# Entry
Amino acid sequence: MRFITGSSNHTWSPIMTTDTTTLSYWLNWRFLICAILILAAMVVSLLLIWMYDGSSKSRSHRRENGQKKVAFLYKDDVWKTCYKAIHPNWLLAYRLIAFSLLLSLLTADVVLHGVRILYFYTQWTFTLATVYFLLGSSLSIRGCLQSCKGSSGASTDGVDTERGTYIAPVPENASVLIVSSGLNSHGEPHDYWGLALQIIFQMSAGAVVLTDCVFWLLIYPFLTDKNYKLHFLAVCMHSVGAICLLGDVFLNRLRFPFFRIAYFVLWTCVFVIFQWILHIFVSLRWPYPFLDLSSQYAPLWYFAVGILHLPCYGIFAILIRIKTCWLSRLFHSAMEM
# Structure
């Protein structure tokens, strides 16, 4: 049992060094710089969301001569696969299995270690990935049922015939389908659930890579207690989420516009602010040593982790680009995207 849960006496969390409830802990140049970094990241992220998601509807109505192009997602993109030969039922089955696996691991983690385990960014991210597979499974079930009933049979045939082969992406947003004149009638636009699925998918993708990279490349080799022994559940919490999302990437046909890194950045900023508020009122150790504001290197740590969001998010963007290019070359006639 200890192999699965690990020892409760030794953790990789840093020891408590400073009382975080004192004014001196917060009223200093270190916190000021870190707060500016977090605030700047949130402002830039919100601007990106407003520019590309918040105003996309109004911009689409203001298109002139096809020069205004916006990201677009069809309703059946959330439940169909990227390759015709793979039936959507396989994606549905995969999402159900992934959801069951992630929920089981998360439940086991909470039962064995208590609700306090949700104090960590790892569990936040794992929960987000679980929500993605729950929502994805629900939308896949809805899509497959509608397909079986034949309610969207005619429109689906129209999509396959008229959209036909793969539409090459533009350099600005490689994984975004471009809405051009006359294309809107070829498929039913997404609903809010579809947009939510795509956003959660992109947030989860970046977050699981960030979590796993920080743990395996920084925390475990350099910042753990010498008596800490890696246990099975910890390995699963820092690997299974990424593996499940990778499998979904190779099956689904969701786009991956790069501007939605803004949601990923906001997710991390919310976690940091949550930790700040908690530590203002309760003096307890930080979940990760680089969050500790008592260190003179705290601003550098915050900046470094912030920059790390780019490659962590970019890995999935590159994988989806590779998948799209590979399928378009090998199975050009069978591509549905």
